[in-house]
Design brief:
The protein has 11 helices and no strands. With 214 residues, the chain is mainly alpha-helical. The chain folds into 2 domains: 54 residues, Arc Repressor Mutant, subunit A (Orthogonal Bundle), CATH 1.10.10.60; 139 residues, Tetracycline Repressor, domain 2 (Orthogonal Bundle). Helix 1 crosses helix 2.
Length: 214
Amino acid sequence: MTAEPVGLRARKKQQTRAAISDQATRLFLARGFDRVTIAEIAEAAQVAKMTVTNYFPRKEDLALDTHDEFVTLPAATVRDRQVGESALAALRRGYLAAVAARNPLIGFAGAEFARLITGSPALVARLREFHEDREATLAETLADETGAEPDDVVPRVAAAQLAGVHRVLFTEALRRTLDGAANDRIAADLTRLAETAFALLEPSLAGYAVRAVA
């Protein structure tokens, strides 16, 4: 009997993970995050309860299933910045592109999902951890990109300012979504707010982490 191909196993795991996440989201939207149990999610997805916790050790991550993408997005933008482009300029450019694409990672998640998140203290706390993890990841990337010493506070201070802008703009996107604004209106507002917010950082960060010619 031959072993199951690695690619097939990986695909089955991905399908199982997606099925669990989909059923969890359906139940959360219907009844609220705090009222749904792991056992109910397992039953809906037709898997064992242990299977759910193996894929999602934290219940919050069944609703917020984008941790890695959320956390690494600004850092990846900095790593991919162009020659002559600062970290600030790259993040401004990347954010405006995300607005144009209506990227859910910056807050275009829809009214139902926005209500789900804000209606649960556990999810609000987990989202706060997402923001903190993103700031820490950005600080590490800025330190690597600038060759900073381990005790240099500049990458951490810069990351706090840059991630702070993203955090404020995410909150604004969420607030406008809850107020019933259409995505086009939200996008226009975020574009205006982003230009203002990133401009505030130019005096201190316009010349920081500029990519040199290789």
